[in-house]
């Protein structure tokens, strides 16, 4: 993440990874204030055994793009909302990448989805993760169906009264 102010948002990515038992590392490295640290972190990611990178930053900080320029690993960008523009500036700087340097981008403050996307990428070669993801999606669907049934009962009881 680009700064300490992004930590609460990026903890959501960690929570998604933890849900599936995926190990991760977290660091604070600013593309503008500590560019050498960002370059060293991104360039060494593959050697450290990382397989997917998630980079979150607010304002027009271009952390995900800088990280993507330094590795062949997939990079997921999380635009954070810590600015007067409520994250629109971060969204634009993360999603508008030049040809040859892709960054998958989730919604502003969408770190949980970034974590899930990372798990899905890892699940391409890990059947255990794929099975966990299938169970997770079934559980989400069942929760929605339960909510719908509860609403239908509530409406039915009111119409009989």
**Ends: how far apart?**
55 Å
CATH architecture of the largest domain: 3-Layer(aba) Sandwich
| Beta-strand content | 5-15%
- CATH class call of the largest domain: Alpha Beta
Task: Give the rounded overall mean pLDDT.
Answer: 96
Record the strand order, biggest sheet. 1-2-3
| Secondary structural class | mainly alpha
Helix content: 40-55%
Provide the low-confidence segments as ranges.
none
* Main β sheet profile: 3 strands, parallel
Q: Would you list the SSEs in sequence order as H and E?
A: HHEHEHEHH
Would you count the extended β strands for me? 3
Tag the structure with descriptive keywords.
mainly alpha, Rossmann fold, 6 helices, 53% helix
What would you note in describing this structure?
There is one protein chain. The chain is mainly alpha-helical and 161 residues long. The chain has two domains: 4-125, Rossmann fold; 126-161. The chain has helices at residues 7-19, 35-44, 63-69, 88-95, 111-123, 127-160, and strands spanning 53-58, 75-80, 104-105. Strands 1-2-3 form a three-stranded parallel β-sheet, sandwiched between helices. Helix 2 (35-44) crosses helix 3.
């Amino acid at each position: 993440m680009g700064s300490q102010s992004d930590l609460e948002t990026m903890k959501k990515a960690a929570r998604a990874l933890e849900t599936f038992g995926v190990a991760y590392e977290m660091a604070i490295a600013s593309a503008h204030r500590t560019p050498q640290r960002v370059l060293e972190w991104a360039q060494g990611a593959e050697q450290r055994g990382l397989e997917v990178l998630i980079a979150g930053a607010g304002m027009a900080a271009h952390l995900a793009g800088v990280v993507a320029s330094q590795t062949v690993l997939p990079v997921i960008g999380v635009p954070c909302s810590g600015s007067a523009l409520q994250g629109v500036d971060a969204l634009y700087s993360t999603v508008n990448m030049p040809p040859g340097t892709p960054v998958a981008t989730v919604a502003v403050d969408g770190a949980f989805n970034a974590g899930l996307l990372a798990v899905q990428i890892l699940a391409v070669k890990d059947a255990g993760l794929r099975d966990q993801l299938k169970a997770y999606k079934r559980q989400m669907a069942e929760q929605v169906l339960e909510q719908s049934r509860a609403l239908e009962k509530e409406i039915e009881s009111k119409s009989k009264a």
